[in-house]
Amino acid sequence: MRGLRHVYMKVLRIKSTPHAIALGMGLGVFVGLLPIIPLQTVVVLALALALRSSKLTALIGTLVTNPLTIPFFYLTMLKIGRFFLPDGRGRLNPDHWTIGELLQAGWHFYASMLLGGFVLALPSAVVAYFLTLALTTAHQKRRARKIASCAQRKKNHPPASKLSTPSTDAAVSGK
C-alpha cells in the first residue's frame, strides 16, 4: 500500500495540466490492457508524444498489467475475444497451454486476445482518464488555494527584519 500511495502522490505532483496527466493515464491503461507486452512502453510513449500527454503517467498506467495481474487479464481478454470471435476448431484449454498449442492456434488466438483486450481496455481507459482528471484537478485547486493563502499571510505579516521599530528608526534617521 505504501508503494501505491507513493505513485499516487507522484502523479498528483506532476507539473502539467490535469488533462495532460489524465490523458497520459488513460493511454497507459489502454495500452497496458492490450496483449502487446514487449511493445507497451514504445507504443505508449509514441502515443503520449503524439497526443502531448504526460509521458510519466502513461508509463505508470501501463503498470495495470504486471506479473500478478497478467494471468487474470489475459484469460479475461481471451474469453471476451472468444465470445466475439468463436473458434470452430475447438477450444484451447488454458490449463494445458504449451508453446506448440499456442503456435498451432496462430493468429486466431492472438486476434481473439487483441479484440478482448480492446473491449476491456476502452472502458477502463475512459474510467482512468476521468478519475485521474478529477483527482488532479482537485489536488491542483487545493494546492493553488494553499499557495494563495500563504502569499496572503506573508503580505499581511512581513518578516521581522523588515518591521519598523523605534530603535531601528532612530538608527536609520541618525538621531
Tell me about this structure.
There is one protein chain. The protein is mainly α and 175 residues long. It has one domain. Helix 2 runs antiparallel to helix 6. It is elongated, with a radius of gyration of 27 Å.
Which tags fit this structure?
7 helices, 175 residues
Using the CA coordinates, give the radius of gyration.
27 Å
**Percentage of residues in DSSP E strands:** under 5%
Overall geometry: elongated
Number of helices: 7
Question: What is the percent of helical residues?
Answer: over 70%
| Main sheet record | none
Tally of separate domains: 1
Instruction: Indicate the mean pLDDT.
Output: 81
Distance between the termini: 66 Å
Number of strands: 0
Structural class: mainly alpha
| Poorly predicted runs of 5 or more residues | none
Secondary structure topology:
Blueprint: H1 2-12, H2 18-32, H3 40-50, H4 55-61, H5 70-84, H6 99-156, H7 166-173
Helix pairs in contact: 2-3, 2-4, 2-6, 5-6
